[in-house]
Write a structure and sequence with these properties.
Blueprint: E1 2-5, E2 8-11, H1 20-26, E3 30-38, E4 46-47, E5 50-55, E6 60-63, E7 66-67, H2 71-83, E8 89-94, H3 105-120, H4 127-139, H5 148-155, E9 158-161, H6 181-190, E10 191-196, H7 203-216, H8 218-241, H9 246-261, H10 271-280, E11 284-288, E12 296-301, H11 306-313, E13 320-327, E14 333-335
Parallel strand pairs: 6-8
Antiparallel strand pairs: 1-5, 1-14, 2-3, 3-4, 3-9, 3-13, 5-8, 6-7, 10-12, 10-13, 11-12
């Protein structure tokens, strides 16, 4: 029948301000970037994040061609009921990444699921798709996180998210921005993500601890939150108007926001990733844990040290999936 593809994302300055408990205290300001992932530096072997819809004699939800029991099944059944779908079909979730990567994968897949069901009903995607998928993630899957993943997966490109909830979402010039070709080409050559292959911490548990800590000591954490939002604004401004020392300045903002984000939860950085971070930092312009931050490391590589960096990370392939990132321009895409 058809296939729905969605990108992952990097929250360059930290995405914490889109979580409802934080957004309600001072608004949201996040700058994120939609990305595609590859297993090679030449960007020839893409790691697809997709749902394939095929005709069948019964409704089936599979993960990499294997039957699964997970919350996304309940999301699917709810959508089928709400949309009045009567056709039988098989949905195969194609996702070879480990769970809880911090790259917005689960939200992107929920969005793809809702988009696929709308297509079955003969309806085109619109902004209500984002609201519907996000609502089901919270109501059925019980996720505590924010909504930035849905924006990035839907629009692609660079996104400045400055609205506190999806009721205020609108088509505007700050969503799905195309980057300057020179900047995009540079990023495509110098973004690497190390994803922990196993024993990943549950991202939702980390978010819940961040919320709990914030509620206990708002006076301590609110200034950190405001500074993270300010750094997201500076990152957006840099992409719009920056010139000299662009990548050094971008890396510095990534590093500073990551330092502040780690204050919200002791679970964010495990011992192994902390050690790896210390070794890699001298070789990159910027480094941070995406999303909850516990299970992956995003690297904005300094080309001067790229060869040295490769020598350091290649022996870690049994422990970490090494992903090479490229800017995604399209956002959610449906292919027949």
């Amino acid at each position: 029948m058809f296939k729905v593809l969605v990108p992952a994302r990097i929250d360059l300055g930290g995405g914490i301000s889109d979580i409802p408990e934080f957004a309600s205290t001072g608004g949201t300001l996040i700058t994120n970037l939609a990305i595609d992932l590859f297993t090679d530096d030449e960007k020839t072997s893409k790691i697809e994040i997709a749902l394939r819809f095929d005709k069948s004699n019964r409704i089936e939800i599979l993960l990499n061609n294997q039957l699964i029991r997970s919350p996304i099944n309940r999301v699917a059944l709810t959508l089928i009921k709400e949309l009045g779908i009567t056709e039988n079909f098989k949905v195969n979730i194609e996702n070879k990444l480990p769970h809880s990567t911090g790259l917005g994968i689960s939200s992107a897949l929920n969005l793809a699921l809702a988009a696929g069901f709308l297509k079955i009903k003969g309806r085109k995607k619109d902004l209500n798709l984002i609201k519907q998928a996000y609502r089901l993630e919270h109501e059925i899957m019980g996720v505590s996180g924010g909504f930035q993943d849905y924006i990035s997966a839907y629009f692609g490109g660079l996104n400045r998210i400055d609205f506190p909830d999806l009721a205020k979402i609108r088509e505007e010039k700050t969503l799905g921005i195309r980057l300057n070709p020179g900047v995009e080409n540079y990023l495509n050559q110098n973004m690497i993500i190390l994803v922990n292959r196993k024993n990943n911490q549950n991202s939702d548990q980390i978010v819940r601890e961040e919320i709990q800590n914030f509620k206990k000591s708002p006076g301590m954490f609110k200034p950190y939150l405001e500074e993270i939002k300010n750094m997201n604004w500076q990152i957006y401004q840099l992409f719009q108007y920056g010139s000299g020392n662009f990548y050094e300045r971008l890396g510095n903002l990534i590093n500073k926001s990551w330092f502040l984000h780690k204050k919200f939860s002791k679970k964010i950085v495990t011992g192994r990733i902390q050690l790896l971070e210390e070794k890699l930092r001298p070789l990159v312009f910027g480094l941070r844990g995406p999303g909850s931050g516990a299970n992956s490391l995003f690297l904005l590589v300094n080309p001067k040290y790229k060869e040295k960096l490769f020598k350091l990370i290649k022996p870690l392939e049994d422990e970490f999936l090494i992903c090479y990132a490229k800017v995604n321009r399209s956002g959610l895409l449906i292919k027949s």
